[in-house]
Predict the structure.
Amino acid sequence: MYSLPVRIYWEDTDAGGVVYHAQYLAFMERARSEWMRHHCGGQDALRRAHGLVFAVRAMTLDFLKPARLDDALDVTVELVDCRRASLVFRQAVLRDGERLCEATVRIAALDAAGFRPMAIPVALHSQLMSLLSP
């Protein structure tokens, strides 16, 4: 499982010091981007090498507990499904191991030029398959 540390700053919160709900999406996007950079060279490298970009197709979120100003969080990423033209990630935002938010994120593989669905190239697909979480 990949994990990205995140600190909560004033800009992430509402006037009461609680993280604004949309910020969780930004934290998860950063964590997925870093996961992709770590394992596949990043989105720009995939675009240049394969003419491929990955984009969020659907997301289900469950907000369990609030994060607050100055919290140190961990945003986790696990690849749980890899199909010919899509990926599914399971993500969580944790504070000291306690789950604050959970998400399932479906990612579509798109042709970078026309943003139409495309098959993930065979070598990349094999690499991604090897990264599946049990």
